[in-house]
Amino acid sequence: MPTLASAITTPDPAALEEWLDDTPDRGERERQLRDLAAPDRARLVAGLDPELADRLLAVIEPRTAANLLTSASPVAAAGLLASLDSDIAADILREIPEPTSASLIGALPPARALVLNGLLSWPPESAAAHMVPEALVISQGQDVESALTQLRLQTAAAPVDSLVAAYVYVVDDERRLLGVVSLQQLVLAAPGTQVADLTETDIIAVEADTDDEVAARTLTDNRLAALPVVDKDRRLLGVITADRAADIVEDENTEDAERQGGSEPLEVPYLQASPVRLWRKRVVWLLVLFIAEAYTGTVLRYFEDELDAVVSLAFFIPLLVGTGGNTGTQITTTLVRAASTGEVRLRDLGKVLPKELSAAVMISATMAAVGLLRAWTLGVGWPVMITVAVSLAAIVLWSAFVASILPLLLTKTKIDPAVVSAPMIATIVDGTGLLIYFMIAKSIIPELSH
After folding, report:
1. For the segment 36-59, what is each residue's pLDDT rounded down to a tens digit?
2. CA 86 to chain CA centroid, nearest Å
3. Are 341 and 308 found together in one domain?
4. Would you say 213 and 337 are in contact if contact means Cβ atoms under 8 Å apart?
5. Which tens digits make up the pLDDT trace of 167-220?
6. Which end of the chain is less packed: N or C, by CB atoms within 10 Å?
7. 142 and 117 share a domain?
8. Rounded to 5 degrees, what angle do the CA atoms 9, 14, 20 make?
């Protein structure tokens, strides 16, 4: 199997195409591209024609593609950008520093530059930032013959892929979205059929400033090939395709996983992240958790007399707080996922809380029995055994209550529920769980009840 380095240096012009055929894995392409020296990257860009550029640049990380293009001259890089779908080209340009990106856009044809500047003007996490502006449009007053002629002219001027071409949007003279018709319907319709007779007016669309994840979920939930993006006046701006929606969902899932681990998203592939970036993304959360965890020491100090009186209470502290943290983590993992897909919202709290607390009652009973058995094996006496069992049950219930409410509250306040990370839940439960433990101990153990 040829490597990218060998494909670049060989005089055979088909070598690069052969490498693409033999290396379908995106990760392997990324690795070989990152290993190239700057002169080899420039040589690679020079050897790419528009078709090869689309096959390579459209499937790798935008940051990797940006590094590749910036190693070539602005004219050569602009020529390759012009061959890519508008949304892909805009993603790459966002990863290129301002002076260089401006020079690349300046080297593009004016019409193409106008489209890309329009995409770059939208916030990166908005639906409009990820759309393809070249949607196929026709007028409601046309018949199918004139509509097909118009579509041929549109695709000749700006070719579109099969996902964009899946739907043809019907608009008025001000480009306001009226409905949709499939290309297949237009082709198969009898001569003389009016577009209005084929138009489906019950159409799903999102506004330009809609969060990109919400737009992606809307598309996938409704099993669409493309989703129209409109402005406040319902004028059609473009479409988000199914493959772009899949990328958005994958990126969001990655970010949520990183946040739930108590870290900010890296925003770059892991192997491209420097130690400084890793430190910067992790240290803030660690400091927040450190400060929040400090009150656990305060609780222990407050009850130091109780610990001195009944030393065996200390044996079970890791068991109790660990069980509470694990219980909360299980619930938040489930609810964060459900909240991110729109399956549950704050208004569903009346359904979520009874469900989770009912499950927590059964879990607490199980854990209390196991805790009682563990305490018995340590020979700590019945008062401490009962204290451990009751405390385990109470802490599990408390943890379930907190973990059921927090993700839904954060979703309501427009905060990513993934910030309710496993470390954060554990931190919250640690201190409060100790309070519960010692208060129960004081009420049960005779030596502490006076």
Report:
1. 888 888 888 877 887 888 888 888
2. 21
3. yes
4. no
5. 999 999 999 999 999 988 999 999 889 999 999 999 999 999 999 988 998 999
6. C
7. no
8. 85
